[in-house]
Design goal:
With 331 residues, this protein is an alpha+beta fold. The chain is 19% helix and 39% strand. Helix 4 runs antiparallel to helix 5.
Length: 331
């Protein structure tokens, strides 16, 4: 009798073995990339790019099991915007995993406008994995829902947009100046600093003087616009010519606006115009190379005529005639 165990003990050991087997044949799930699980992942900078996040489900049992998958984006993480409602989030609704197998699936996120959020802001993407049964049989010991939170980080975007705000409406006369205005807008999701603003005439109009204000570097906040004024001074000797002005701005992170060009027409005054201006100056009827106080010849002739007439009357013709110049002399 000592070599045989009671029937009750055998039944109890069998039950214990079943219980241990059930525990070791469970399932688990997780995020495939440990770095993503630990630090999160940055969203794409372009809304047309697709972010892929891979997760896995491991079935430790011997028979196939089914799992339901649900994904949600934290709706109250960004109270100032509801832009996440436009996101496209794709994932399988369910997945079947064979006994002893490990299956992976992906959650994709697209149509995200990162510039709509503040840089380095975080949003939670939560993936729910729920046990749905094993070949139609629901095992209570496997029934649970795993929850995995993926931290989505908003990348820092520096975007500088520029456009000409004011350009000359017509030709610029030589010897004058005009002002061009170019607007630079920070369309990114973070403040930045404009380190450089360059303007040039391309070396083809060296008689132009270009002066820019305000001075750089300067800070420009998200969504703000800065107007740069370019004073174009034209030399009076500048010929008639079309000149191309090129301007661009660059941030401290080497983000540029790209080169923006505008044409200005320089118009030089003609020689005929200068002659017309000279003809407007007053001129005298008679100028002498000597003393400017000498009377005009017509006045001297009149005196001589009067003198000759008086001489005839006094019969002193020879004296007066010798002292008076002839009419032919003044002609």
């Amino acid at each position: 009798m000592r070599g045989r165990l009671p029937l009750s003990i055998v039944v109890m050991l069998s039950l214990m073995t079943f219980s241990v087997g059930a525990q070791t044949s469970g399932w688990n799930s997780g995020i495939s990339d440990e770095d993503v699980e630990k630090n999160g992942v940055y969203l794409p900078t372009d809304k047309d790019e697709v972010l892929q996040i891979e997760l896995y489900i491991e079935n430790g049992g011997t028979i196939e099991s089914s799992f339901d998958i649900d994904v949600e984006v934290c709706g109250d993480c960004a109270p100032e915007t509801d832009q996440e409602e436009d996101w496209v989030v794709n994932h399988p609704d369910s997945i079947d995993v064979s006994g002893g197998a490990n299956e992976t699936f992906s959650v994709s996120v697209s149509n995200v406008r990162a510039e709509a959020f503040d840089a380095e802001q975080t949003l939670d993407l939560t993936v729910h994995i729920t046990y749905a049964g094993s070949q139609g049989v629901n095992r209570p010991d496997l029934q649970r829902t795993d929850e995995h939170i993926i931290v989505l980080r908003i990348p820092r975007l520096i975007v500088l947009d520029a456009e000409w705000k004011e350009t000359p409406g017509g030709p610029i006369p030589a010897g004058t100046e005009t002002t061009l205005v170019i607007s630079v807008t920070n369309s990114g999701n973070s403040g930045t600093r404009i380190d450089a603003f360059s303007v040039s005439e391309g070396g083809k109009c060296p008689q132009l003087d270009l002066e820019v204000s305000p001075d750089v570097p300067l800070n420009i906040e998200r969504g703000k616009t800065e107007d740069f004024r370019i004073v174009v001074s034209v030399s009076s000797a500048h010929p008639t010519k079309r000149c191309t002005i090129t301007a661009s701005a660059r941030s401290d992170e080497d983000i540029t606006t790209g080169a923006l060009n505008t044409e200005v027409s320089i118009e030089q005054a003609s020689v005929a115009d200068e002659s017309d201006q000279d003809s407007d100056l007053p001129s005298s009827t008679f100028q002498s190379n000597g003393d400017e106080s000498l009377p005009a010849p017509s006045f001297l002739l009149l005196l001589c005529v009067v003198g000759l007439s008086s001489a005839r009357q006094r019969r002193r013709m020879d004296v007066i005639s010798s002292g008076c110049p002839s009419v032919e002399k003044f002609e």
